[in-house]
Amino acid sequence: MSNWSMSLNTAIYILLLSTFPINSIAHASPADNELEGYLLCKKAVFTNRGDVHSNWIKPDWKIVKQGVYYKYTSFDIPEEKIPIDDDVRSIVSHSEEIRLHLYGLNPTSKFKLRLTYLSNSSGRVFSLKADDKILQKEITLPAGEKIEYILDLPKSVYKDEAVDLSIINESGPNAVLSSIELWGNSKESLVNLEIDIQGDFRSNIFGNISDGYMQKVEDAEIELKLEGTEKSIKLKSGKDGAFEATIPQDWRNDEDKWIFVSAKKGRLHGNNILASMEVFIPRLSPKPFSVKSVRNAEIDLKGIWQFNPNPPKNNYDININTANWASIEVPGEWGMQGFEVEVDSAAAYRRIINIPQDWAGKSVKLRFDAVYSETDIWFNGIYVGHHMSTYTPFEVDVTKAVMPGKPNVLAMEVCGESLADDNTANYMMIGRRAGGIIRRTSAFALPKVNIALLHVETQFDNEYNDAVLMVFIEIANESTEDVSGVSMDFDLTDTDINTKKLEFGPASFNLGDIKAGEYLYKTLEIPVKSPKHWNAENPNLYYLDGKLNIEGNELQVSRRRIGFRELEIRGNQVLINGSVTRLRGMSRQDSDPLWGRTVPEETLRREMELLNQMNVNNVYTCAFSPDELILDLADEMGMYMFEEPSTCWIGWWNDNMESRQYHFRQNKVSGNTDPKMYMEFLRPVVEMIQRGRSHPSSMTWMIADESAFIPAFERVRKCVKVLDPTRPVHFAWDVRDESIFDLGSHHYPSYVQLEEYSHSTRPVIFDQYYHIYRNRFVLSVDPGIRNEWVNAFVPFWEKTWDTPSIWGGQLFNYTDDIFLMPSGEVVGYGAWGVIDLWKREKPEAWHIKKGYSPAKIVDETSPIPVPKSGNPIEIQIENRYDFTNLNELNIEWSIEDETGKIAPDIPPQTNGVLSIFPKTKKLDGKLMSLDFYKDGALVDSYRLRLGEPKKVKIGKPAGAIELLESDAAFYINGNEFKMEIDRESGQLSVSSSEGKKLLATGPELVIMLENNEIHTSGFPWPRPEMPPLKELNQKCTGWEAREVAANKSESGVEILIRGSYQEAEGLYRLNIGGNGKMTIDYEFTTHEEMHVRQIGILFYLPNSYDELSWKRNGRWSSYPDNHIGRNEGTVKAFRDASFPEVDSKTKPPWPWELDSNEMGTNEFRATRTNILEAALRDKDNAGITVRSDGSQQVRAFIEGEHTGLLVSDFYSPGLGSFAGAQLKYQLFSDKIPKDSVIKGRVNLELIP
Q1: Nearest CA to 115 among 165, 178, 169?
Q2: What span, in angstroms and rounded, lies between the C-alpha atoms of 596 and 332?
């Protein structure tokens, strides 16, 4: 078995004895004396401690070829069974099989294994194989009990010094393993040398050599060889096993090449690999602000290109006939423009570029902000480069092929499918293929001696007053001659021209000489006097101009827009410029309904503006690395950005897909754990950092999203720490407290897990939490679910806010992921956004604004005490800003016609009191408006009740009434109405005295079951068809009345109706007064266990009753006038004709709440919770009113010729994935057991 593997300080810790007889042992839960005679060296568990203590050691991840790490919580396994701090709780798991790779095994030695298992459920059955040899067959694990096995490792399986172990899931949710030990019989049991090697991105490498027992090895012979060449370097390790070398510049030419590393000493040997890009950073030049003798140094290549989805082989030939090629817009996905490209085939792009004559003698580069996903590039028929990634930028040098003063031909082959595409999991997410030049592209000229790299970093003094601007530069001499007298001058100016000039310097640096073909890397320090800080609340920016000179002559100026921002971690908290910060975050992806992953610039700006309006201060660029324009906007508007490199779901669902296996074979790698895969994971991370490193808004670097931790990710982490040690590095998910990562990461945590993280020793982020509801089946009937989401989000967020170790969380997701294909097909992950596909706000947007409010009145719906005469109204408030005193805000109040402003001195992160001195008398019962503005934008709005509100009594049935009957029905005549109750069915109908129909039928029992859309459109399996709305709008079926009786009573007429539905049996009791008021009591016993979403009784009116009004007790005191959850309002069933109809590919001119289906608009058919009253009326103001005490809900809808009005006593969000589960199982139960009694009372009033 080939051993070109990554550095392995073996995680299978060897347990040694000089001699011992090996007998076959295979016992569960063995005592230690069963291994008597062995010398215990180390024990491996799947946790990750940063120090060595007792008999535990930080494990090496490199043995795990397939598996996901997890730690059982007390919810999984009670503490009384397994102590919470027992390392056996930390496991590796996989739904199919866990794969482990052991190597460096001396074929002459003998070995034993001890494996420890722990299951949180019964029924797990596994088998163990060594290569193809079965060691254990169908072993069953009990729940909550640690099980150990000891067994021989057959010599036949490690004769080539390595063995693959497989723990195969035979039955149950997945295979699990807590720990593994390897025991050997000799001090020569291991024959491997471990090579730990690292590049510094500045042409240097360093590392060390150790043996299999982690002892440093001196005088090991080391050789480095550049892939595909005869170039090599030989050296030896020093006393401590260390070695280092500078790699010649002529190894720089291709960052995609490997450097093979081998070491040997006596019988010991080992190998490793190093990516060239880890030695020579992939170039991403700062754009030129000016270049000597060049009028325009950059050409924007957006616009119309030629395109061929099935090109000839020589499509890059400059003389090829392209008359029949199509036109395509760049940037843009080809699929969103109606083109189909065969899977795993390349399409061709072509563009004529008129290169100016004054570019002659210059270096000419092409910059691609993103090409999806693998491309080969020709310039004037000459091959100039290759790149494979999805959403990260890259640069190609075309100097050798450029023809200044003439038309130049840029030709590209682009294949959408590749290993990079698989690593992004795009098809898995959205159910369609992606491909194309999807972001901005440009050509630019540079002098032959030019600025190849320019990045900055801030270091403040201890008082965070003065700063040192660290400037990292790389100067390239791309000429054929040595140059001397190279220098750089820097200028620093405020982007606000009205600000006084900044004191800084010295800022001129002599850099010396640079040989032809060489690069000079320098770190420069510029002292700066009292710069304005950058943070999300005060995004102060400066221009840094770097001027490159030779012998005093200016060649080039490059400009960076920078901010002075220093980030540090102290214990379990994160500080920005010395102040503890908290994140009010949102997950976001690039998504446009017409352009796909290419989002127009004006849309990006609108998205960022809306995020600011929602009081969001942090964006996690989930799954897909963002357009750099997003970073520019974040710098400008103030937003903390978490960047992700578009590596997602590695080691999960897509690993065994044939397409991924094909690309593994195509790239000559065996799978995710193949050492060569680390370059594919490293490239997008390095390119992400090259793009984002100088942006003050860029806060963290993520390695991968929702992936299994594999050895490559550890190497990538080390590279990131070398490249940029100033930002935290994290990995999703990574929940282990003793992790190698700077931040803990958990997606969709429970309350139990949140409590556990309160004890974390490092900061924790919930980089996806409280998923926005997306179940189409439920939302089509009841958009009010979107309003109800707040009742899950706010309690969890408040608990999160009260936990200092949690830096913050990013709600998932910001925008709908829906694509309107030219074919008419609709694909994408679905309507999971806070804003919809057209960037219209949904109800959740206001809830997020209120929940994330930095000017927080926590209990805003409770009455404010009325002060005694001469005293102020006092309101408790919490300032949740990190840097802003509330006196910096514009705070306006009003009571009736009186208005005023206040400026309370309440520092950030403190509580205080707002004192308001109104002149208005008799404040009791009045409403006070209180609005907070920052820089002209609304931060929060309150409508506070002064004093206790008067309680409104619900009227009772009363008044003169007449009861008549016939064989068919009972007839009731009131003051202004007539009612008929069918004696066979018990159904009633009501008309006014003049004969106008008020109620068509009712009551009908509704037990609406959960209706889950299991998968949304993003998955490759078929999307579920939407059932008819009437089927989704469930009510009980098969009603049979057994008794219908009517009697006069003191208050009017009492109707008793007994009967049964298929789902339940019971009765209705109606008490009807002559004044049109009635009570309807219902009580039923269920026939079977059910999971329900809504329980209540339903009435039908003619569909002319199409106006719904209500008053309710909402979560907030203040809502926008068009919010479906507002405390009072009136809406029509359908929007009026003033809105023109538009086709499905045009943004509607109306807001989201006026979107409609056959049941009405979103705002009409949404459930209103906690109602005080609700009424359905027609154009003449006739109808019915429901009155309640704030404990019930109403929902109206159009159903053919009728309008339904459901009054419910139970309301659950049902299944909606992630957040839905948390709502159900943590706030209340929606499980109704068999023989449960469900009952309620409805107070109804007729309005003739």
Answers
A1: 178
A2: 8
What distance in Å separates the CA atoms of residue 973 and residue 992, rounded to the nearest whole number?
10
* Each residue's pLDDT tens digit, 255-298: 689 999 999 999 999 999 999 999 999 999 999 999 999 999 99
Q: How far apart are CA 256 and CA 679, in angstroms?
A: 8
Residue 1218 has pLDDT above 60, yes or no: no
Supply angle C-alpha 790, 794, 799, rounded to 5: 155
So what's the pLDDT on residue 508? 97
Beta strands in 515-662 (DSSP E): 519-529, 542-550, 553-562, 567-570, 573-576, 579-580, 583-588, 618-621, 640-643
Mean pLDDT, to the nearest integer, of 802-831?
A: 93
pLDDT tens sequence across 308-327 = 999 999 999 999 999 999 99
268-to-11, 189, 190, 236, 243 alpha-carbon distances in Å? 18, 11, 8, 14, 17
| Nearest-angstrom CA–CA distance, 1094 and 906 | 45
Alpha-carbon distances of 162 from 97, 101, 102, 181, 613, rounded to whole Å = 19, 7, 5, 15, 58
Using an 8 Å Cβ cutoff, are 778 and 1216 in contact?
Answer: yes
Instruction: Determine the distance from the C-alpha atom of residue 760 to the mean position of all C-alpha atoms in its chain, rounded to a whole number.
Output: 22
**What whole-number distance in Å separates Cα of residue 195 and Cα of residue 208?**
6
Question: Which domains are assigned to the chain?
Answer: 14-184 (2.60.120), 193-278 (2.60.40.10), 303-439 (2.60.120.260), 449-567 (2.60.40.10), 601-851 (3.20.20.80), 866-945 (2.60.40.10), 962-1120+1168-1247 (2.70.98.10)
Q: How many angstroms separate the CA atoms of 432 and 852, rounded?
A: 35
Please answer whether residues 350 and 318 qualify as being in contact, where contact means their C-beta atoms are separated by less than 8 angstroms: no
Neighbour-count burial for 987-1006, b at 16+ CB within 10 Å, e otherwise: bbbbbbeeeeebbbbbbbbb
The dihedrals phi and psi of 20, each to the nearest 5 degrees, come to: -165, 150
What 3-state class would DSSP assign to 786? helix
Using a 10 angstrom Cβ sphere, with 0-12 exposed, 13-18 middle and 19 or more buried, the burial of residue 258 is middle
Rounded (5°) CA angle 1197-1198-1202? 120
Do β-strands 1183-1199 and 1202-1211 pair in parallel, antiparallel, or remain unpaired? antiparallel
Using the predicted structure, report yes or no on whether residue 3 has a pLDDT greater than 80: no
* Cα separation, 304 vs 326, whole angstroms: 10
> Could you give phi then psi for residue 612, rounded to 5 degrees?
-60, -40
> pLDDT band at 426, cuts 50/70/90?
confident
Task: Kindly report whether the global pTM for this prediction surpasses the value 0.85.
Answer: yes
Beta-bridged to residue 93, according to DSSP, are 68, 176
CA–CA dist 15, 1197 (Å, integer): 71
**1162: which 2 tokens?**
């979103």
Tell me the torsion sign for CA atoms 790, 791, 795, 796: negative
Q: Any idea which of 742-756, 1072-1086, 1153-1167 has the lowest mean pLDDT?
A: 742-756
Report yes or no: 97 and 127 within 8 Å, Cβ to Cβ.
no
SS3 (DSSP) at 887: helix
DSSP for 50-70? SS-BTTB-PPPGGGEEE-EEE
At which residue do the structure tokens 């000089």 appear? Answer: 18
- Cα–Cα distance between 67 and 713 in angstroms, integer? 14
